[in-house]
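sorry for the late reply, my laptop died twice this morning and i had to redo everyting from scratch. anyway the thing you sent over, i finally got around to it. pasting the sequence first so we're on the same page, its 280 residues, then the predicted structure underneath. double check i copied it right bc i was rushing
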Amino acid sequence: MDTLKLVPRLELEQLSIGFGKKAILSNITLAIKPGELIALIGPNGSGKTTLLKTIGGLLKPLIGAVMLDGRNITLMGKREKALKISLLFQGATSDWGFTVEELVTQGRFPHHGFFKSSAAQNTKQTAALDKDIVEKAIRSTGLSGFEHRVVTELSGGEFQRVLIARAMSQESGLLLLDEPANNLDPKYQYMVMNLVRSMTAFGRVAIVSLHDLNLASLYADRVMLVGKGGLVAMGRPGEVLREDILEAVFGIPLVIAPHVHNPHIQAVFPPLPDIPERPV
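ok and here's the structure:
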């Protein structure tokens, strides 16, 4: 996917988010550089999904602004946002009998219009480009051979990869992914994170919410830790994934140690269980 031309600038300005008048997270101000992969971590219910939806323009901020390329996200139309932002949220389903190829092709709709196929509305050259992008997204997510499978017949993990392929085919500059490794076995967890990492190499920004702190340590340029109503810490993995910071937020004494293959990477371990040791 090397056709990306847009290098996005994302800024959160004194952002407070929530529902009604109740703020979940308050006073978040930060700038995210082109090419960065940000791991968004925090306890369940801390506001990670709400923050992603607000950045993506699905929810309006209570206070402050989300600025993308110098423009307030709330002033953008639906198509403009779709061209600039790819969204993937937990619990997505499809009750329609789309094939894998058809669903992934939907990622191209913002480039040509939502109600006409790209092939019908554009030149043969453009249609060929769309087809190539879709095929590459399918291949990159390990879905070759699934093109004509109906998505309602797929497993949860397979469907998750289809949604990631659709986000790839959209070729937007900002990726907002809520637990993209959810429902995936270890092989595909690392495949997905490798894909996201490679996509930022062309200048994209990716914000990925994760429960697996080891994935955050391995892949993130910076880690964004939210909890207790605000931004607790933001920095490189080694600056945020610290025992004192994590215990204060998650309420459990996690253990940080150097990765066995690279002492500059943090590995996160749970405490040993309080049960009798297994016999040797």
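Residues 10-269 form a domain with the Rossmann fold fold (CATH 3.40.50.300).
thats about all i looked at so far, will dig more tmrw
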